[in-house]
Amino acid sequence: MKFWPLSFYFFNNFFESELSLTSKDNCAILEEKSNTKDSQLKKIKIDCNHIDFKMIKSDKITINKLFKGQGNGQKKHCDYLMMTNDTVYFIELQTSIDEDKENDINYIIQQFKGTVCITDYIDSVLFHFYGKNKFFQNSQKRFVLFCKNTPIPITSAKSRKEIRYGINDKPDKFKIIQVENDGVIALEEMG
Questions:
Q1: How confident is the model at residue 115 (pLDDT cuts 50, 70, 90)?
Q2: Which of 90, 22, 47 is nearest to 189 (CA)?
Q3: Which of 16, 111, 159, 164 could form a disulfide with 76 if both were Cys (CB 3.0 to 4.6 A apart)?
Q4: 58 falls within a domain
Q5: Could you tell me the end-to-end alpha-carbon distance of the chain, in angstroms, rounded to an integer?
Q6: Domain count of the chain?
């Protein structure tokens, strides 16, 4: 068991229990319980290969009641935040994305940016109210979009294909990984 930073201990106790997710066999289970018939990507697993992690359902966090309407996207959030000892993964699940459609890309970037704002807020609370170091500010960040359908076809030799390459350390440089429903992804694949 790895030592978690003290600020992570406070963070782990900061959220309501319904936001925390459990794991099974050292796999994080990500599920979308959408009523939308078009939603085809419902469940994937991330194999954490014996790396300790914590995960929350970030799209259930509601701290943005200050702003009217949707504003510039600050009320949007990605689906999950996954934390290891030194890295925070911002994760979104989508059925499809069209990289040629700027609206698709901008919407996902807004979701990632909105969740970054939440992590900034959490760090601020930990610092100002608990006198703790800023956990998120001092962690590596990785932005990952899992999607079932992409404009790039899957080859028969591989069950999934990484679409974007490079370091995915900013909301607008997210990595797209194509995955089938009930697919398993190794944590190392996420950046």
A1: very high
A2: 47
A3: 111
A4: yes
A5: 22
A6: 1
